[in-house]
Amino acid sequence: MNFPVLSVITFTPMVAAVLILLLPAQRKNEARAVALAAATFALILSLWTYFNYDQAAAGYQFVEKYNWLPVLGISLHFGVDGISMPLVLLTGVVMFTGVLISWGDDHPHVMAGIQDRPREFFAFLFILASGVLGVFVSLDLFMLFFFYEIAVFPMYLLIVIWGWIETREYAAMKLTLYLFIGSVVSLVGVLVMYWIQYQNTGLLSFDMLQMEQAGFSQTFQNIWFLPVFFGFAVLGGIWPFHNWSPDGHVAAPTAVSMFHAGVLMKLGAFAALRVGIMLLPQGAQTWSWLIMAFAAIAVVYGAYIAFVQMDFKYMVGFSSVSHMGLVMLGFSTLNQQGLLGSGVQMFSHGVMTALFFAVVGMIYDRAHTRQIPELGGINKIMPFATIGFIIGGLVSMGMPGFSGFVAEFPIFMGVWGRQWLVAVIASISIVITAAYIMRNIRQVFFGELPEKFEGHLTDVTVLDKVAIAVLCFFMVVIGLFPRFMVPMVQTGVENILRLLGGQ
Amino acid sequence: MNFIDTHLLSLILFVPALAAVIILFLPNGENKLFHWFTLGASLIPFVLSLVVWFRFDATQSGFQFEEAYVWYEAIGSSFHLGVDGLSLTMVLLTTLLTPLAILASFSISDRVKAYMMLFLFLETGMLGVFMALDLLIFFVFWEVGLVPMFFLINQWGSANRNYASMKFLIYTMGGSLGLLLAIQMLGVLFGHFDLVRLYEGWNSLDPTKTLLGLPVSTVKAIAFWAFTIAFAVKVPVWPFHTWLPDAHTEAPTAGSMILAGVLLKLGAYGFLRLILPLYPNEARIFAGALAVLATAAIVFGAFAAYAQTDFKRLVAYSSVNHMGFVVLGIAAAAFAAGTNDATIALNGAILQMFNHGLSAAGMFFLVGVIYERTHTRDLGKFGGLFPLVPVYGGILIFTSMASLGLPGLNGFISEFLVVRGAWPILPIYTAISMLGLLFTGAYILKGIKQVLHGPLNEHWARGEHKLTEINTREILVMVPLMALILWIGIWPAWILNVINNAVVKLF
């Protein structure tokens, strides 16, 4: 038997969470050290998996299967394909950098990072990470749900305890309600699928690879695609169910925002793809026009709302809505380029938005304001963070040479193949995005440094710089050398196209 | 040596970017080191492009020094580079102007490290556009050049830099949006972006078929306008030119040199490389409209330049005026493609691109020289400076004459070729353009008069404001420019050979 690398990656954060909780509460640095060690371990393992994924063989790899509840056909079935592999790596990266930037700084003026109860913070964060990883690697629908809920519930606590004091209770409740309602709707759909499969084939199984063969009728797919897809897509921030996400992003503490926008939204999109589109492909073809319409609205509307925000963090939050709209737009094309772009965009946006939230958090922790007009001249104090934000901004604008372009270009090509008018409309968002990113860089980073900040602000810590550098590294490398990621995603896309009937 | 021989273009392209990365790791605060290192690094591509220039076989058709690497296989884009006579001329112009602009930036002392890095990245971006033989790569570099220029204006510009840099960004990005969409559409239609193959496939499309639910001719017309607007903003063609005076005026001196010298050529290059070969029919149909815009640019550009009181703005508007001739040549060629007159007009247009690169860069530099000493660009505050700074005055007059189109200097050759080629094809527009030429003379003489001649403004004659003569470094910047201006003016055959060959083979 091979080394069960996926289980190890998935359960490392969980084990670390337990270890951290065993430490005494006042041993803050020890808790952080354990967290960092676990995150590093998970990152190294996911990198190892990434580079050992056999692209020529394609399909699901590193497969593990253990019986869990055989009576109901539930098993712990893990495996990754070209779509989920980059997302596992993404989770590793965001976990690692999230721990780094939460380490904090004991400077008297600064409350950077997590100084209040870091032990519990990291424990909850890691339970969440385990849940996220579990969803990405699960090939069993029940397990996918199981981990999905594990990923959602710590979010409530993380926001409500460590969040921004003004809105944290409201935002945490809103987020939790939205996501639970969404997942319940999906769950109903999934249970129906489970039942129909039993009727069709006499097989009691939650195994998705078997469910792909269940032969759901066209009518069934048309009816049940909508609840299953949109139930998950709520977490992917699809318009008009995106409302929870900017509030949640803003209220969450920095590392949680990074997780939230960087990884959790991918969770929704990924589950919508894997369960909705891959198990109900004919339903997806029936309703693709609706997803396309919603996604196109999200792309343009999200960008416009981001443009009018005065709060730095809200701006980043709405930019996520816009960029996740592009992921959904790629899904809705159901063709090779569109899905390929979405796959890359999920990774690219995850890294980029994690970087955005990290930098916003670093500034807020020091300046104690996020109002864009009140900020200015940050580059004189935090040059490294400034460069990081500029690179992130260029990715966000879809500037060639960075990962955002590699992702967005095929999405637009895919849309051209389906409906050229949507491509033209969605492209408006590129100009709006450029406008708000550049305006922001100019005002926050290069404007006049307000007098009240003179001598009060401190530069980011070394750990922060490491985190920024790691995140930028991925964006630049993929932008310059798409071959590090694109062929892998391509293998996953071909699998989806096969399910869609060789379209 | 073998590696260098087979990778000449990639080396020219990436040496600046590589040098920029190395600069990042050099110790902070060593301004002298940054200056000399950057200058040295930018001379390497210049030397290499001279090698390419001399090895280039002007008798051979098609692209030379081609290189192709896998880049983004999944959507059919490869990293395909190559040059013909047209792009080689532009590559040489870029690699020549960049070291001069860097030499001109030795007076910069604020954040030299970042400045030099941006400049080198900018060079890579511009060169990439000229070398790319893959539409996607073309677009990649088209956008790559934009960001460093934005920051150069925004960070090292003068008083109104925020407004100017934002305007520059929005105009160019807005223009390139259509380009992006059109490129995507072409990619979807053909499954690849390779220019050499597109030239054939695109033109052999059956015009009676439908694409994406629209007739082929409509799709082509839409794509044509998307390309045209993107390039028209960059050239800039009237009425898309209004970003130019702001950006040129607010940019730091070296930034203006590169903006006027090379960046404007990107737009004209786009017309020649993409629009004329890809859309010969549409170009012929719409050539009249393009000629109207070109004429407007020539005439209004000249009028506007004449009305300026700011020396740098005057030079900026002169770019609108001069680039109008490039577009006029292109319009004439599009209208009568294949005829002898069209060939002459195109030769003139391409040579005018090169010439304007030399003279505009020189003019902006000279404006910068006097601005650094006086901290004003107001023409009314100068006057009678010639006796104080005779060497500077001489150089300024020489460069202005090139810009004016004095026979014996380079501007005359190219403008004459354009007018000679366009005259039989578009007589009315050419005639109106000549009116613009008259005003070209007027505004240039006005500039010279107000700066150098007339009663001496005593303010600059003595005391702490005493005007100092142009120094050796600054003369060194001007010498290569003036030498080329004179050389092309007296004996243009060496460069026209290369250009003409490309023109004949291309169209």
How would you characterize the overall build of this protein?
The complex is a heterodimer of chains A (503) and B (507). Chain A has helices at 5-22, 28-52, 84-102, 118-137, 141-162, 168-201, 208-211, 218-233, 244-251, 254-279, 281-308, 312-333, 336-367, 378-381, 383-396, 403-418, 420-446, 462-480, 486-499; strands at residues 61-69, 74-80. By secondary structure, chain A is mainly alpha-helical. Chain A has a two-stranded antiparallel sheet with strand order 1-2. Chain A is globular and about 70 Å long. The model of chain A has no long low-confidence stretch (mean pLDDT 87). Chain B has 507 residues and is mainly α. In chain B, a hairpin with a 2-residue loop joins strand 3 and strand 4 (214-215). In chain B, 74% of the residues lie in helices and 4% in strands. In chain B, the strands form 2 sheets. Chain B has a two-stranded antiparallel sheet with strand order 1-2. In chain B, strands 3-4 form a two-stranded antiparallel ribbon. Chain B has a domain at 279-507. The A-B interface holds A 336-337, 340, 394, 399-401, 405-406, 409-410, 412-413, 416-417, 420, 423-424, 427, 430-431, 434-435, 438-439, 442, 446, 482-483, 486-487, 490 and B 70-75, 136, 139-144, 147, 150, 154-155, 162, 166, 169-170, 173-174, 177, 180-181, 184-185, 187-188, 212-213.
